[in-house]
Amino acid sequence: MTRQRALWVSTSMATRGGVATFVRTIRQTRLWTDWEIHHIVTHRDGSIATRLRTFITGAVAFVMALVFHRPDVVHLHTASYGSFVRKATLAWIARVARIPVVLHVHGAEFHSFYCRSPGSVQWIIRSTLTHASAVVALGAGWAGRLELIAPQARIIVVPNAVRPRVAVTQPTAAEPVHAVFLGEIGDRKGTFTLLDAWAKLLADGFGQGRARLTIAGDGEVRRARDTVTELALNDSVNVLGWIGSDAVADLLETAQVLVLPSRNEGQPMAILEAMARGLCVVACNVGGIPDLIDDSCGVLVAAGDVDALVSALRHVLRDHEDRSRLGSAALRRVEADFDVEVVSRRFDTIYRQVRR
């Protein structure tokens, strides 16, 4: 059997965020061994010096891998801004070496990044996308945006992936419903919209003790804790700050609702992780979120609409039957469309096509 080699380049698997989660998830599939995937890190959390040193070290390792191991395909995971600059540099090096490049676009703000860039940078972005052997978009909406940027690029839709889990346990009538927010704490993810909605929910008569909210993530942790105190929410809201992947899994298994009222998104791994456990998801109809859930398996509201978020939360926290129904439908959708085993086989097909 002919050996197959793929070279993956991304942020460190220990880095915070969805890309690292995605890479860790794919690493558990046969794709990783069937293609003898070698992973190179070109970014990690830390100071500017740490990030620069990581990229230089990763770039050298990348060139060495091209020269001495000659992969069949290079798979570059990119977001926007600095991430794209790093991956575009490596993409052109691989092109000079005549090795097919799969450029996997994860960035929620990629179209904004393109629009805000000067003309010369826009040309580089278009050229990089166009000359890649394949450009992976997370959903149809993102594929459309990339097609507007680079009409000649070969764009393929492959969603993020997750491994289906056992459905969470629903609380008894005497137990509080547990809602969770996972992600970077700040305005883009809608954290403070959520806290305003939670305060209004309680002020409108939703009884204390009937629900609790846990907020986990990096970002503006202190501001979130101060806001919880200012809004007198300490009895029902707990701000944990950043927690590791194992702790995230444990947290989700104690919850019944995930709330992510983002103003801008790609395709959040937090939503997929929640769906994979049968949680009911309340989110906003922005970015790639509608590619994951619709009214049949979740609740979507307009971004920034506090009243709509209050109404959605009141419904899913009160209606035990509908909350359970939506969570079960979300888990079935994961099994059908986002199972990591299914998605990994799509990458296998892409690799076989581009290496010809």
Automatic annotation (TrEMBL):
One of its GO terms (biological process) is liposaccharide metabolic process. Residues 63-160 form the Glycosyltransferase subfamily 4-like N-terminal domain. It holds the Pfam family Glyco_trans_1_4. Keywords: Glycosyltransferase, Transferase. GO terms for molecular function: glycosyltransferase activity. The keyword Transferase applies. This is Putative glycosyltransferase.
